[in-house]
Write a structure and sequence with these properties.
Elements: E1 10-16, H1 23-31, E2 38-44, H2 51-61, E3 67-72, H3 78-87, E4 94-97, E5 103-104, H4 108-122, E6 126-136, E7 142-147, H5 153-156, E8 167-169, H6 170-176, H7 187-197, E9 201-213, H8 221-231, E10 238-239, H9 240-243
Parallel strand pairs: 1-2, 1-4, 2-3, 6-9, 7-10
Antiparallel strand pairs: 4-8, 5-9, 6-7, 6-8
Helix pairs in contact: 1-2
Amino acid sequence: MTDVTPEGLLSVVIPNYNYGAFVGEAIASIAAQTYAPIELIVVDDASTDNSLEAIREALDKADNLISTRLIALEENVGKLGALNRALEYVRGRYFVIHDSDDLLSPGYVERTIAELEAARAEDPSIAIIYTDCMLISATGEALDRGKSAAFDPALLERYSFIPEPAMCLAAPVLEAGPYDETIRKGTKHHKWKRIVANGWRGRHIAEPLFSYRMHEGNLSGIGKRVIAEVERGEGGERILSGYWPLQTTER
């Protein structure tokens, strides 16, 4: 690995715990981005399934990325603990934390970075760009569309409407850390509130540019209700802040 940080580098962190069935696809969706350069840091949080094998296999195929790193923890420290350990290695101007069971569309990074820089030309306090999503099943079947909300710091105090793969400047993420590792639920809400509390602001793109996977390992009662409604032909756009208040189910 070179000591010179490439211009425009994006650092992607994927925390993983027992998502061996999905993490390879998540890594592949990063490698399939139309944007470069990207460095990828995967933190396995002491998984007990086949995660490490799946991660290593997927990283071997991601040879178009500027660098990849696997941090295999021996003790489970939770999602924020995994993030804290990854932040030591983040070198990029931009930053994304990507859930290990979700997928980015191929143009996600290119689009959100362009939107971020355009927004910052108008307002330098903007550091976060987030989008809507498609809700998908464990097998990747499209179930419904998930909608987020327009950026509002006051609303963020009550609802976690900024999804995890939001594009962010890396400096605000590093500035707000380290994050409280005792928090095991509502982790993304904790992270975004700390960043916004430092004066940083965001913008919302009302287009579904990533896929949020719903499966037995992460379904709350709300998630099960969405799937049941879709099976009954009652699908429709979901407002994420209304369906996942405060993101109280750990991903």
